[in-house]
Protein 1
Amino acid sequence: MTHTPIDARAALARLREGNARFASGTTRHPNSDEDRRLDLSSGQAPFAAILACADSRVPPEIVFDCGLGDLFVVRSAGQMVENAVLASLEFAVHKLAVPLILVLGHDNCGAVAAAESLMEERASGTSLALLPGHLNALAEQISRRLGSDACQAAVGNPPLSGADAPRDSAAVNAAAAKAEVCARSPLIRAAHESGELALAHAIYTLDTGRVDFGD
């Protein structure tokens, strides 16, 4: 397939423009026809990689009004950064040369809410209400993110764009996930430090459909 290189600035601009269309109800549904599908049968060249929550209400391709082959999307509850997630993002950087990784969180996130409840129980000294299966481990990991002073500072410097941008635990969690991706992957860190790759985080607001971007 043909591929026109795009830098991180242009990738972010494209995401902003697509989200503006989605939030205003003027979506175009680009790159979704038969010609696009056939073109992609020989390869892919996404312009950005997105680490998003698994929440069914936040599908990145729809939120950013993108089509087939535009985004390399990795999803996990609460944007947890596990080995498979890192490997997927490394593939996007090493093999597909994406110029941008965006960590996309959202308000009213169930994983973040579980972590906040866990933190409140610990602070009050009450008995912990264990969640079934692996859910408690997920809440534990996110609670450690939320309790980090470094993560709190990362959210506000610079702040998320927009006067009404969410400044809550969802933003802290997204910023922490972005930091973890860079810290845990030498491959991604090297690409970032060389200027070949940009890292950013953003928060999607469920009722407005708007995405507010951090650094």
Protein 2
Amino acid sequence: MRTALFALTAGGVQLAVRLADAVDGSTVIHIPERLRGNISEGYETVYFLRLADVMKTAFTRYDALVCIMATGIVVRMIAPYADSKLYDPAVLVFDEQGKHGISLLSGHIGGANELTRRLCAAVGADPVITTATDVTGVLAPDSIAAQLALRPVPKSGIQVINTALVEGRTASYFIDSDLPHAAFYEAHLRAEEIQPRLFCGVLPPVGEDEYHVIITRAEAVPEMSAMPPRTLYLTPRRLIAGVGCRAGVPEAKILRALTQACSMIGRSPSFIDAFASTEVKRDEAGLLAAVRTLGREIQFFPNEALAHMIDQYGLTESDFVRQTIGVGNVSEAAALCAAGKEGGRMALGKTGFGKVTVALLWEK
């Protein structure tokens, strides 16, 4: 997860540093130019003159925004850009003294509720979470979708199911037995004390007072005109692996790096749907062999495309890589290129494993 932290005062900067230390993934702290010198050089920092300018850029650049300031300021800043719970970043608000942390936007799918709980625990703050299902202690299907990197379809079904759960009704979960990793999803649901039913082929019709949540392949979801009532589908998001490597790295080392990277997000390399890298590596034997072994395809992108993503998302660059191939970030930039215009959420920012660098991204 790529996280942007914002502070407006010297006290806020101190809290931003504490929160940055508790965040998994890459962080960038944004503070006013007048506070230059209030933060250690060990933190990636952006200095700004106008909060509105950096907030606009950050809204589409990061997976999460953590704002240490008045809630009203944050609401006014993000209001023009909030679009959909399926795509908006997680937005959190903390008071300067770190007494309260508020999950403000994208609580379930964007992960704001979970991030709020985690950061509040790290700094001793009181988490403020107002989504109805969380308040009533009900596990919402879109929260499960966030945990398992599943895409809810249709969007309107989220509210239908969640409203029913808040009102005390129950939802039945079904898992397509032909779905790759069906056992993984089943185990996760059972760990949450949900008893899903496996199915193969046609599902039973939805009864008059029944609510169904169905985990299946995207191509198995019916058209809107044929969508059954009171039903929410959850379909796996593509996991894209961006890979950079030194020349001549053997297949075994690349496979080992991929295994380690995937284990860091609780998956195995079999979950990877596609690979991406720089066109400089188009003939890299070890990389091509690893992709073949996993039965996937790889896309190679030119420096111009990678540079565009580096600029658009403010990706951190390596001087060594830039001097070697012409751009300073391969793994993250290539993964974002492969995700296309919808973009994605970083499951694992660029991470080095010896001579191999891997970034993992869930396609939005």
Protein 3
Amino acid sequence: MLARTVKHFFRKIGERQYSKVGIIGVPFDKGQRKAGVGEAPDIIRSAGLVNELQGLGLNVHDYGNVQYETASINVDNMPNLGDVAACTQKLSEMVQQSLRDGRRVLTIGGDHSIGIGSIDGHVKVDKDVAILWIDAHADLNTNKTSESGNVHGMPVALLASELADYWPYLPGMDWQQPIVSIRNVGYIGLRSVDRYERLVIEKFGITAFGMEDVERFGIHEVVNMALRKIDPDNNRSLHVSFDIDSLDPLEAPSTGTPVRGGLSLREGIHLMEDLYRTNRLNALDLVEVNPRIGDKKSVDFTVEAAIHIIQAGFGYSRRGLKVPEGITDLPLQTFR
């Protein structure tokens, strides 16, 4: 009873002035071939996400799940492009609405193709946006270079203005123009990069930190180095697109394309805490949790990791919530 009373006391007095957050669920799995990833938004919500965010003193509005109508579109080596185009267009509109409502955006996928829509919406509102792509994979393939044809391996290439000439005309994607400069994109956590993707990274001098860089410099310095490259004047709106497979599979086993040797959960949380402290983190995608992969323990472990990452991005501090100015002592009745 005493522990609950103290916890309630700190939660009440530790609330800062309310910050607004909008949640958008994207139950989308057509950017890859493994069923189940589309179930993640509702699974993560049911694990208590909204209550956890409200416990940080946040004003949370859930905009619900993206719903869309699709048309049949045929483009070589891009199956389900009609679904990708329709879903991401609707997501872009919902992200724009949340930002214009004065709310930072949390987008819960779904596979990583949804980053096309979330980043497009962010750029259309805030214009000058810097993007951190936290992922084991570079997602820089085009339909001509991808071995799998999975669109969740193509979103950065679709968004980058420097790569516009490498694409054919894509029916259904006229709403989305490649308006992000690749100079404004930074990678953290890479450890499974295709040959063509490496060529693109080297050709354009893309800011890219693999796991060997994290091991050499530490996650704190890697985050700072990435920000100095993609946001040198500390004035851009920040967008983080966080693929749960950036974490080591021991930390997040229920995901479709796991790669050993990834970030620890502690490193992922530290990364998000650092980005939150910039006061410019206005959008976060959390993608690629797949509740159909692994047993219940694995799924629960992965969902818990996802919620820890989200909390860190929206203000949770492992030091505890700050007490407001003017309060210097505990009221005696707290302990009676």
Protein 4
Amino acid sequence: MGRLAICPGSFDPVTYGHLDIIQRGAKVFDHLVVAVFNNQSKSPLFTVEERMELLKKATADMPNVSVDSHSGLLVDYAREKKAEAIVRGLRAVSDFEYELQITSMNRKLNEDVETFFIMTNNQYSFLSSSMVKEVAKYQANVSDLVPKVVEEALQKKYR
């Protein structure tokens, strides 16, 4: 199978920022599993199933990317999948502190899995799913922030 990495997130919904990280991670690893996790501290707009479906459509042109979900610990999922790495995106210094804590804990729980950080493309450095949802809620144009399939799903949710 080659080198396998996991790109975890809540992806509620997937944005062009996420897709940038996914595409770039997929260039480095033989196979990239985009894993939808439910963040307990957030109340999601889309169900896990809906998020997976949107991700599948948004990554359909990436042959070495698959979509999955998991409800437990990322390190357990990585062990189960025999993944070598975790791929995470960093937007700003504010992300770094949070990601450093997560990475340190993951390393303590499973030192066999490395975490790779990819700096977000500058054009997406401001972009977050929360921001997209906030803007979409007021029927503002989000076509340059998310794929068409996500834009349509957001319009349907906020109709």
